[in-house]
Amino acid sequence: MATQEIALPGLKQPGISSIDRLHGLVVTVDHKKLGLMYVGTAIGFLVVAGLMALAIRLQLAVPNNTFLEPDVFNRFFTMHGTSMVFLVGMALVSGFGNYLVPLMIGARDMAFPRLNAFGYWMYIFGGLLLYFSYLGAPGLAGHGSAPDVGWFAYAPLTGRAFSRGHSTDYWILSLLLTSVGSTVSAINVIATAVSLRCKGMTLMRMPLLVWLMIVVNFMILLALPALSAAQIMLLVDRYLGGHFFDTQAGGSAVVWQHFFWLFGHPEVYILIIPAFACVSEIVPVFSRKPIFGYPVMVGATVMIGLISTSVWAHHMFSVGMASVGNIFFAISTFTVAVPTGIKIFNWLGTMYGGRIRFDLPMLFCIAFLFQFLIAGLTGMMLGVAPFNWQLTDSYFVVAHFHYTLVGGFLFGIFAGIYYWYPKAVGRLLDRRLGLLHFWLFTIGFHVTFDTMHFPGLLGMPRRIFTYDAGRGWETLNLITSIGALLQAVAVLCLAINLVRSWKKGEEAGNDPWDAWTLEWATTSPPPEYNFASAPVVRSRRPLWDLKHPEDPDWKYE
Amino acid sequence: MRRRLDRHNDLLRSLFAFALVCVVFMGRVGTVFGDPDGVTSIFRPLAQPAQEIKETSLLVLVICAVIFLIMFGLLVYSLIRFRHRPGDEASEPPQIYGSNQIEMAWTVLPILIVFVLILVTSRTIADIQNRKASPGALQATVTGHQWWWEIRYPELGIVTANELHVPASDQSRRRPTFLKLQSADVAHSFWVPQLAGKTDLIPNRENRMWIDPTQPGTYLGNCAEYCGTQHARMLIRVIVHPPVEFERWVTEQRRPAAEEPTALEGRRVFFRNSCVNCHTIRGTSAQGAFGPDLTHLMSRQTLASGAGLNTTETLRAWVRDPQRLKIGCLMPNMQMTDTEVDQIVSYLQTLK
Question: ipTM of this model?
């Protein structure tokens, strides 16, 4: 099944100028290039939004700090949240989906390559528009006019009465653009997975990552319209005299929250499921066993997707819903714990009885498992509505969702980066730098986010730019800030590693991890057409079948 | 081969060091929680419903801790027991694809736990939310503003700001306070951790909550819903009085504003400027409703919704330029001379 390089006019030829290379990136419709561009851009935004988080932590390190003015602080946490969710998280989802889905199902490209490029450019221009808000409109006159309404943009703070100028408009319009990008990318991934699978690859023989990507992209199609609709209503309110969320004219502030979380809660699953996807591919390979309970994993993911559309108002336990409403959303929230628990058990079952190799991708997966377990448990606590009345909008919640999105999502993605970088580049990431990244980031993560739970329990609300001494928050906040610095250094290690190994890394070969899915059957990096001849598969692990003709999978499936 | 061995030792050593750091850290956190002064821990409730919430929360915490310990133990066990050992390269472990019985077991067990959680949660929700006001209960209306709290006692005819005064209940006579929550502009949230959980104040909507404190004292809290520039400086205090003292407070608050002959000049400056457009001083022509009622300003512990303690210096700084004390607040700098500021401050200080 291994392919040979066919001489084609491509970007790999020696002596090609950098302007030609740039031109190549602009006009490309190749899913691999677009996938890497998504991931690269996302890492760029990750660094920018991470620096904002660092500034936020410096401001909060000591009580009554004057490092940032209130408005600057408010813009930073708004831009940090918005960037991390839409410009980092969503882009990584698109990037991994784009790069991996065609390779894993033995296809030559996505179903709609040009739509794919369109999606990427919508995303990046949306992101640039969001950041242009710092310069645009009257921005240059003051501290910039970036949005300062929070990534959740609760009405009526976003109304014209309370949000003058154009900062909120930048927020709305840039996210509408990136949403278009995410939507077409979602359609594309689903279409690819449904219609371009190679011969023999039935739905139940798809790698788990592809299954999870299908679920995620369906969720994107379900959730994003709620946000886009609400944003358009908000624009109507702001410029065409609408009163959807205008409380002074009888509009409802709570309706915005329903719309927002109808998008917002599925959104967190949209982010975490791709991390599940990476873990579900990496844990089996490094445990040297197939994934435990494949059909159950598929079913559990579909269940998470379905249930996640009915839990949104657990973000709203304090808005004064009737007790029946609160009880309903508490129940639906607990229900989602069941399929999530099943997934954790199955990863454990995969490792149990295996021969676990502690290579870098696996280290990140192990940290993911511990951290996601804790994030899930604090999530259950938050589902207990009375407990939630104390915890919501406190630093406990901040710690909880950073546990999910950093300790879960980002660790999963880091595992994926270490795992597939050799495939994409042809060279392994440096192990020593990788270990430094892993330990610094893991320790920094725990110093920051373990500690961050406690100020919340001591009554510290979110989104405050400063606080007085004397309520037991000072030491905890200082520790939290120190951990943030460690994480920043760790991300620097990753960045150096990514750049250095690009040219100088150890040669990876086609299949450095002795893995089993189709992407490892082609060269590293794969040629533009992926596979010289269309592969044919007979089981979930085609490369296992090749390597172990005496004991192939298809006999048992 | 040797490299691999070292790798495992490194891993174990690092894990051990990490565990040690965790233990030291937990000790430090423990001292914070044990510290009785000023710490507004949700696990040191001094009123209903915070007490009931704490009991439910502890049960949930215990359940979660047990789940965590079991899962953590299984993970660590698997990692150590099934780690790659030298010589393993030659062959692959037995390939196990799954087991329906095991899947069934770990589906049913979580469902049982979830069932317990649902029952506990539903009972507590219903118990707290469906509490009806008893006839003797105190009624108060809290209105959120950017960035201060307006507090009205409709039955007592009292209007004040930023500090909610309530009587303490005792075993023989329970006297809970029922709060009506509303907002004049954007969404806010009322949170005093030792008394109750949060309830939002949302414009064009009326929310309710109740507190039933038993211990007199001052309870600190914050606005817990992001409401704009000065969200951080929107602090709330609840002052719980013994019943007799509360009656005295009510009597004092119902008096009209003091008219001290010593501060006539300041009074004139106050009424000449546009202070009156936003502030009310009962019994005078100042009837503004945009800012806090100043009739008994000096009876409050803090100024500007907790931005500073109510001292002469803070009051002076506030009157001179509110934007320095609380950047972005809605009270403008009135551009007054030093003399005028002094005069206004001495007038305000007569409003006991």
Answer: 0.90
